[in-house]
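Journal club prep, notes for RB
We'll compare a predicted complex against what the paper describes. Inputs for the pantoate case:
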Amino acid sequence: MKIISSVAELRDHLRGQLRTAFVPTMGNLHEGHLSLMRLARKHGDPVVASIFVNRLQFGPNEDFDRYPRTFAADVEKLEKEGVYVLFAPTEKDIYPEPQEFRIQPPNDLGDILEGEFRPGFFTGVTTIVMKLFSCVQPRAAVFGKKDYQQLMIIRKMARQFALPTEIIAAETWRADDGLALSSRNGYLTDAERAEAPALFRELNSVATQLREGHLNVSLLEKTAMEHLSGRGWKPDYVAIRKRADLQPPTAGDLATGEPLVVLAAAKLGSTRLIDNLEV
Ligand code: PAF
């Protein structure tokens, strides 16, 4: 695997590659990321991964400085997956001058759910993803459903800018007890790690009730939040939304069986976890 940090060298190395499949990451790779690499291989060749902890998508009080950086271990894992190029730019490589041009997601998608609690987050994500796409020029790029809203926003961005990159969705990788794998799980204490699967259990309970025809959406959301609070969590939201646009379903949508997704974000101790489940 070739490790490249400069944009110019990356372009040289990938010149003429028309079927590149790309997996952007912020490193601290776990089995979930590696499943994205395997999926990428099915959609193109060569597979290119990137590791870049993108300051633009972190708020001033978020965990940019303490975000886990495990480069040597990540390289070993990617080597084993047969990744062809690892693009690992420094901040100077990616932002040699202040990034004044930004990609602004539409408010109705970018300022709800995660965007409401992490202002500017999706602008930071779409700006770096657009820039990485411009460096790698992939035919396909893989994003996990764990970050459901991110996936939807990037899909829409790719469509509206007519990018030549197919956006591929990967299923969430879970531990045996149901907890979605995430780099932030590493912040959990042993006791919190034991409690953490309760978030997915709550999503499952909401999804089951919806499937059984309990269609009082706001009551289901409120009850799920109360359950989590009762167990010591600080929930930001549990939200039942339409998969198509992440807007709340109307009575008509519920009656016609519009595909739904339940999304949640909640703090356990000082760690904020997110998860979702399609209904
Ligand atoms: O999901 C992530 O790890 C990041 O948001 C991404 C897509 C690599 C952009 O920094």
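Talking point for the session: The longest strand covers residues 234-242.
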